[in-house]
Amino acid sequence: MLQLRLQNDLVVLLSVSDMLSVFRCSFVVALLLAAAVLVAHSPGAPIAEALAPRDLALRRGLGDMRVSRECVASGLLESNQTLSLVRCALARNLDGTDGWRQQWALSPESLEQNAELHTREMWNSSDKLQKQLLTEYKGCVGYDCDTTLTFRYMEDAWELTKPGKHPRIFRFGNWDPICAPAEKQINYRYALESWFYMQFIGNFAGLVDDPQAADFVYLPFCIRFLLEGFTEQELSSGRSVTYLNYEGNFVEAAVRRVDDYLFSLVQRLSHMPEYAQCVQRKGCRFLVVSIDSPRNVYTKFAAAMGEKVTFVTYMGMSGWAPRQPGNLYWTDLHNMSLQGDVEAFVAEDEVPDGCRAACKLHCRQEPAAIEEATDIVLPWSQLYQWTRRSEQRSSRNLLAFFAGGESSCSRKVLLRVFEEQFVTDIRRCTLEPFSKWCLRGSTLVFPASVRLEQRMWSELAYRSQICLVPDGDCAMSIRLIEVIMHGCVPMIITNRMLPPFHEYIKWREIAFFVREDEIPILPKILDRIAREPAVLGWMQRRLRETSRHFDYTLIATGTLSTLISRRALSFRLPEYWSSR
Predict the structure, then answer these.
(1) DSSP string covering 399-416
(2) What is the DSSP-derived secondary structure letter of residue 144?
(3) How far apart are the first and last CA of the chain?
(4) Do the domain assignments include residue 104?
């Protein structure tokens, strides 16, 4: 028996009898093939040379390569069996035909057209749908409404409809000329700053010309665009590179250059009357939009802004989750713990007492990335939207699913826990005579070396009831919004994530929360959840309402306006708002 290790993750076992069953050839031909492999594997002959083509090594472990390729050629039709899709993904990855091809990449012309369409739809759809929802919720009393929205959202949204309560924003100048290329990044997942500058502010009803009448003075910075440019320069310079792990695995030299640029810019602005007036007025704050939270990344700039700034960001990271009542984490709600488990959790390094993270880095909270009462965490912009298929449950034959790299210590633990199960399931399904049903109810956690095309990932997300969402480079991952748009209930594995719109969304009703040190018992947790299909179905159905608040062509823009209004009124009318 030959044991071949492919990409250090999949172990494929070949034997003479295996070859007979796979190729269904005549007895003589099968013996000739087996003999050829054995001869080629004589001492000194590399295994790669013994398998020419490499498809021979994959046929027994992954199934018929021809069928796997057809599932891709056919556009991943829903009629394809899940096992065929998995084989297809593995085969394409192992033979080098796949490699994170970004199917959502758009041409500049498409970006411009989508931006124009987005401009028209953003406000019309958002205002119309939000008014419709408010009408539906008008009769709600307290928390009696059957909705995933908090009562605070309904109060704030109604408050926004009253005269004089709309937030007033003064745009302090235009972008620096260095930011001009970033204007073409609209509709790209890293285009928050350009979208806010060109679309949100450009169409904002509360834009004012007098800074003394403004609740917010918006400072138009293209921070992420600068970071990417400086990072490219540093990586191509030939100098040694140091990464800042806590900040998001950014190149340290690039971060420092952006920080210095922003700091010097603030120093120049501080001498202008528009800036000075906001500093002096109690009811005024600066509004800064940055994909990466400046509080823990650009610390010198954040310190220069002081307490007079509200950051709008994607990167929600704080101690919010551990502070929530006892029924946020699934194990607390079901009285389940690690105690007595066969495989005790071992952190990557020594963690402080009381911290239940996978490594010391995930216990760190200083400097704080988010001020929960001041800053605003937005959902990542991405191209998926809620569809009819998102609502389907009958086609979800996988219990849980995850595919991703080892970009955090918690991901490493997750992949290690499910590594053996993945290989065993694929091997078992290949051997079973009715293998097309064998993955039903399974949990698929792909090894880190197996990278899925975006459309393959999407197809498997549509077929999964639960999608695992551990921390990546940062606590807040774009995958959280993507899985929700697929109708897949997120299982958020974190100790430090602050989810978007946390004040307005009842997150415990649409997502499972699991601590990082509970990853070793995750198979048991999933098994328990699978026994309660009614609860899982109830959560999946509630994703639809929530998804609209994460879609920038629907209500996300209105929800952002409502939250900005709440922030404005909190310091414009502190006595009134503190009682709410």
Answers:
(1) EEEE-----SHHHHHHHH
(2) -
(3) 71
(4) no
Give the DSSP per-residue string, 506-534: -GGGT-EEE-GGGGGGHHHHHHHHHT-HH
Q: How many structural domains does the chain have?
A: 3
Say if residue 347 is in the same domain as residue 444.
Answer: yes
- 431-475 residue pLDDT tens: 775 666 788 899 999 998 888 888 889 999 999 999 999 999 888
Q: What is the CATH number of the domain that holds 429?
A: 3.40.50
Residue 308 CB-half CA count within 13 A: 22
Q: Could you tell me which of 490, 411, 483 has the C-alpha nearest to residue 447? A: 411
Strand partners, 466: 400, 489
3-state secondary structure of 12: strand
User: Helix or strand or coil: residue 97?
Assistant: coil
Longest dimension (CA), the chain: 91
User: Which residue pairs from 451-455 have beta carbons closer than 8 angstroms and sit at least 24 positions apart in sequence?
Assistant: 451/93, 451/98, 451/99, 451/100, 451/403, 451/405, 452/89, 452/93, 452/98, 452/403, 453/89, 453/92, 453/98, 453/100, 453/101, 453/103, 454/100, 454/101, 454/102, 454/103, 454/104, 455/76, 455/103
List the structure tokens of 66: 């021809």
What CA–CA distance (Å, rounded) separates 464 from 488?
A: 6
In a domain, 312, yes or no: yes
User: Which long-range contacts link 320-325 to residues 24+ away (Cβ below 8 Å)?
Assistant: 320/372, 320/497, 320/498, 320/499, 320/502, 321/494, 321/495, 321/496, 321/497, 321/498, 321/513, 322/356, 322/495, 324/508
Whether residues 539 and 570 share a domain: the answer is: no
Decide if 300 is inside a domain: yes
Q: Are both 351 and 234 inside the same structural domain?
A: no
Residues 433 and 535: their CA atoms lie apart, in Å, by 33
- Pairwise CA distance, residues 312 & 564, whole Å: 9
Residue 99 inside a domain? The answer is: no
Helix (H) or strand (E) holding 502: none
Both 175 and 203 in a single domain? yes
**Mean residue pLDDT across the chain:** 77
Q: What is the mean pLDDT of residues 476-499?
A: 94
pLDDT confidence band for 357 (50 / 70 / 90): very high
Q: Is 254 helix (H, G, I), strand (E, B) or coil?
A: helix
Domain co-membership, 77 together with 48: yes
Domain span including residue 445 = 323-357+382-549
**Mean pLDDT within 134-144:** 48
In terms of Cα–Cα distance, which of 492, 493, 464 is closest to 390? 464
Between CA 152 and CA 327 the distance in angstroms is 20
At residue 28 the predicted structure's pLDDT band, cuts being 50, 70 and 90, is very low
Kindly state whether residues 187 and 140 are assigned to the same domain: yes
Distance CA 195, CA 207 (A): 16
262 with 343, same domain? no
Give residue 144's identity as a one-letter amino acid code: D
Residues paired with residue 287 on neighbouring β-strands, in sequence order:
218, 310
* C-alpha to C-alpha distance for 404 and 479, rounded to whole angstroms: 10
pLDDT digits (tens, 9 = 90+) for 35-56: 333 333 333 322 222 223 333 4
pLDDT tens column, 506-527? 999 999 999 999 999 999 999 9
Model pTM above 0.85 = no
513 and 455 within one domain: yes
Q: Give which of 465, 444, 559, 446 is closest to 512, Cα–Cα.
A: 465
